[in-house]
Amino acid sequence: MEALPESVQQLADGLRAAGYLPGQETALVAYLAVNLGKPVLVEGPAGVGKTELAKALASCLGRELVRLQCYEGLDEAKALYEWNYRKQLLRIQAEAEGASWNAVQDDIFSQEFLLARPLLSAISSSSPVVLLIDEIDKTDQEFEAMLLEVLSDFQITVPELGRIAATTQPIVILTSNNSRELTEALKRRCLYLWLDYPELEHELAIVRLHTPELAETLTRKLVEIVGMVRELDLKKPPSIAESIDWARALLLLGASEIDEATFRQTMSVIVKHRTDIEIVAARVGVALSTSAT
Ligand SMILES: Nc1ncnc2c1ncn2[C@@H]1O[C@H](COP(=O)(O)OP(=O)(O)OP(=O)(O)O)[C@@H](O)[C@H]1O
Ligand SMILES: [Mg+2]
User: Fold this and answer.
1) Angle, to 10 degrees, between the axis of helix 240-253 and the axis of helix 216-231?
2) Three-state DSSP class for residue 197
3) What DSSP designation does 281 have?
C-alpha cells in the first residue's frame, strides 16, 4: 500500500520536490482529491500548469500517469476499449472447420481480444494510477455523459463481456480551457480548482526553478514585464509557459539587461499574435525606452 500524504504541507512539499510549485489553493485541492478519492476539474487559461499538476502529482505519489488526450470526435473506442479485430479474425481462421459459431463467439469476445484504452487501463491497473483527462472541453456532451458513468461507478460495461469493475481506483485530474461550459452533472462529481496567472512572487519562484542560472534581477524584471503585458488587452496574454521560455531565451542569448532593444528582439517569445505584438511594442517597448533614459 502506498502512503498517502498526511497533510496539505506534506503534499505541497512532494509536489515541489517533483518540480511543481503549487499555490495554497492547489495544494489544498490536490490533498482533498487524493484523500477523498474525488476527481478534480482544473480550469484556467492556457499555460498555467494544469497538465503539469497531474504529472507532478503522479511523480510525487510514485504512481503511473495514464493520459487521455481529448479532441473533437474522441469516441469510446479510443477512450475505453476496442475489440482487436485482426486478432479475432486470425482466431476465426485458425479455428477448426467444424467449430460451432457459439464456441468461436465465446472465445473471440474474451479479455484476450480486448484492447484497453486509457480509461479501461486506468481502472484495471494492478497498482493505482493518476488518470489525466486532458482538455475535456474539446469533447462533446455525449462523451461527458459516458465519462460520468466511469467516474462515479469506476466500472465499464462491455456488452459482450459484462461488467469490468475497477481493480484499483485512480486519482483523476480533468483539465479544461473553458472553451465550452461543462455539464453540471460532471461538475457535481468533481472538486474544482481554478488556476490563474500566479502572483508575482509565485511566478518568480517558478521561473527561477526552471532557469536558476539566470541572474535574479533579470528574472524579476522579466516577471514584472510579463505582468505588465498581461494587463494589456491582448488576444492571448503570455502564460507561465511563455515566461519560462523567455527566461530560457534570454539565458541563451546571454542578455544582461532587458532594455528596449532586447525586448523588441525577443518579445515574439511571449506574444504571438500580430495585433498583440503591435500593442505590446507600442506600450511596453516605449515604457522600457523611456525608463532607461
Ligand atoms: N506551479 C508550477 N510550478 C512549476 N512549473 C510550472 C507551474 N505552473 C506551470 N509550470 C510550467 O509551465 C508550463 C506550462 O504548464 P502546462 O503545460 O501544465 O499548462 P496548461 O495549463 O496545461 O496549458 P494548456 O491549457 O495550454 O494545456 C510547463 O512547462 C510547466 O512546467
Ligand atoms: Mg495542458
Assistant:
1) 140
2) coil
3) I
149 grid coordinates: 458513468
pLDDT(66) > 70:
yes
pTM equals 0.91
CA–CA dist 256, 222 (Å, integer): 12
Query: Which ligand has the nearest atom to the CA of 44?
Result: 1
Residue 34 to residue 145: CA distance in whole angstroms: 23
**Residue closest to 256 by CA, chosen among 208, 218, 225:** 218
CA distance linking residue 126 with residue 110, whole number of Å: 19
Ligand 1 pocket test: pick from 42, 43, 51, 57 the residue with the most ligand atoms within 8 Å of its Cβ: 51
Range of lowest pLDDT (79-93, 96-110, 150-164):
96-110
Distance CA 109, CA 7 (A): 46
What average pLDDT is seen over the chain? 92
Closest to 18 (Cα-Cα) out of 5, 1, 32: 5
Contact status, residue 187 vs residue 41, Cβ threshold 8 Å: yes
Distance 32 CA to ligand 1 centre (A): 21
Distance CA 11, CA 31 (A): 6
Rounded to whole angstroms, how far apart are CA atoms 94 and 150?
36
Share of the chain above pLDDT 90, in %: 74
Q: Could you tell me whether strands 191-194 and 40-43 are parallel, antiparallel, or unpaired per DSSP bridges? A: parallel
What is the crossing angle of helices 8-17 and 24-36, to 10°? Answer: 110
Neighbours of 151 (CB within 10 A): 21
